[in-house]
Amino acid sequence: MSQTNIAWSESRGVPGVPSPLYYNGRLYSFMNGGIVFCRVAKTGKLVYSGRLEVLGEYYSSPVAADHKVYIASAEGVVLCWMR
Predict the structure, then answer these.
(1) Can you give 1-36 as a three-state secondary structure string?
(2) Residue 48 pLDDT grade (very low, low, confident, very high; cuts 50, 70, 90)
(3) In the list 16, 20, 74, 81, which could disulfide-bond 29, CB 3.0-4.6 Å?
C-alpha cells in the first residue's frame, strides 16, 4: 500500500493487546493502566485522552452499545465510558 492510501497515522495511544474500537465515527483505544484515547476516525484528531476511573490491566477489547463504550479489566471490573 502506498502512502497516498493512508488517511492518518499515530503512534501515541496504540494499545498492546486490546483492539481499538470504531463507534459512531470515533476510534477508541484503551491501554494498560487505564489510559483511554478517543480520536475522530476520519481525521485522527484527538478528542480526549486521560485515565479511566479504575486503574488496572486492560486486555479485553472494548464493545459499544447505546452510545456507551464498555471495557473490562483483568480484575473483572467492567467500566462504562462515555465522552
Answers:
(1) CCHHHCCCCCCCCCCCCCCCEEECCEEEEEECCCEE
(2) very high
(3) 20
